[in-house]
Structure formats: structure tokens, C-alpha cells
Amino acid sequence: MDWxxxxxxxxxxxxxxxxAGVAGLMVIEGWSFVDALYMTVITISTVGFGEVHPLSEGxxxxxxxxxxxxxxxxxxxxxxxxxxxxxxxxxxGIGRRxxxxxxxELDRHCIVCGYGRVGxxxxxxxxxxxxxxxxxxxxxxxxxxxxxxxxxxxxxxxSSDEVLVEAGxxxxxxxxxxxxxxxxxxxxxxxxxxxxxxxxxxxxxxxxDSEKKLRAAGADRVISPSGIxxxxxxxxxxxxxxxEFLDVVMHSADIEIFMEEVKVKQSSVFVGxxxxxxxxxxxxxxxxxxVLKVDGxxxxxxxxxxxxxxxGDMLIVIGTRAQLRSLEGLx
Length: 331
Fold this sequence. Notes:
By secondary structure, the chain is of the alpha/beta class. Helix content is 53%, strand content 15%. It folds into three domains: 3-86, Helix Hairpins; 107-223, NAD(P)-binding Rossmann-like Domain (Rossmann fold, 3-Layer(aba) Sandwich), CATH 3.40.50; 256-330, Alpha-Beta Plaits, CATH 3.30.70.1450.
């Protein structure tokens, strides 16, 4: 419902009636502007203070017309206000301001652009991982789903700088661009990186030739849902037990085993150790599976026992929450 448009039309109608009344009284009765305006206002508002000056026949007819149209305009205004309140637009406005304040207080949150099939799943996983999420979406129906599921959201185009700033892009730790179009995801990535060059951007890609463009736009990672889905379907046939194990480790709430990534500080005891030496150091802690080395924005997975760990490397580890906390203390 376009409440703003309806309210503007109503205000315009009242002003038009008032202007016609003032002009008519000035022409027909020869009154001054102030007298004509005063008489028009008290007539339209049905206050009934009496006539400013005696009216001619033409003036009386004009006043009758003003009363009819004025009362009609007031009834229309009352109906709009009543509908506005009943529909919850006023409450929605208050809620929107409250949500805007909540978003402004967030820090290190994640932004999900697009709340379709992919974006909604991303939001669920982030929320389950204990991350605050802000959704950017312009479809009213999808926004209703967002609100029903308790997500903070911003209505608008995700490629708009103003919308991204409202979603807290300057304070966010990461952004997922899951809009339905590759071209739109390129624009979202460009806008995001222009506002915050340090934010980690994961972009959705439907076509293979779009990955290069998304990378050039600044995306740190590019994910193809169709590609991942195809590989997963094939893996279910080729390696079902492995896939089942990974699903249990990554997503099951029934067991206390988690796979996480831990960044190695320059002061860590692991710096200079080989992968096998680091594993021996962690006999009672989480198990180190691999080392990820960052090279020019790209990550290389190192599994060799002789791999030397350096500050800034990322360790892929598996263990219980307590074991992971213990290992994080060493890293």
C-alpha cells in the first residue's frame, strides 16, 4: 500500500479546495486575501465562527460548495488515517526505526544480500553459528518472511551505497551477495568494496564465465550453487560415507565435535613448527587437519607433514568446543 502517495494526494486535494475558495471569494466578493483565506479555512474545517462580511448570492453558493467538498475531504482523510492505523503502518514505522537503531549498534556482523532460496539458507547457517545477520532485500513478500524469522533487514537495492551503509557495511565482518543475477552480484560486490575494502565478500555465481568478473569486482570468494550441488550429488553416489561423516561433523547438533578454522598469530608457539610437530603439541587438544597459506589473496591447502607453520596461516582443526578453545589459546 502506497501510504505516502495517498497522503500526498489528500493534502494536495485539500490545498486545491482551499485555493479555489480563496480565489473565488476574492473575485466574487472583492475581499482581501487574508479575509478570503480566513473564511475559507473556517468553512472547510466546519468551525462555524460566522461570516467575515455579508455574502452575496454568488458568495453563498461558493461557500456551500466549499462545505460539501471540505466535509468530503475530511471524511476521506479520516478514512485514510483509520486504515493506516488498522493496517499497522504506524506501528510498522515505529518498528522500522527501532530496527534501524539495532542495526546501528551492530559490529562484526554479516550482511546477506538477497533473501531467496540461497540467501535464506545462508542466513540460517550464519544465525546458527552465532553470527548477527542483516538481510538486504527489496521484495516485500520476502521481507515478510525475514521479519517472521526474526532477522534484521533493510529494504532496498543491495547495490545502492545508501542501503549498504544503512545495513552497517563499514562495521560488518563479511557480506554474502546472493542476488538472483550475476550482473547484480557484480554491482553489489563493487559497491561493497568501494565502501569497505577490508570486508570479506562471498559472491554467488550462476554462470562459469561470471567468476572472473566477480573476482575482478573484488569478491574474495565466488560460489556456484549449481556447481556445488552437482558435485555433491555425484559424491553421494561415489563417497556416501565420507559425505555423511562431514555432514555430521559440520551440521549435527547431536554430537560434540566441530570443525573450525584458527588463525595463527605471529607470537604463537606453532610458528616455525612443521605440521607433524604441531600435531604432537596438541595431543590433548583439537586435531590439526591441514594448514591454509594465504598467497596474494588465494589460499593453498598444505597437508604435508613437513609443512612449516607461519604467522598468518589458517589451521583447519577438529575437536570438541573445549579442545578448540585450548588450541586457540596456543595459536
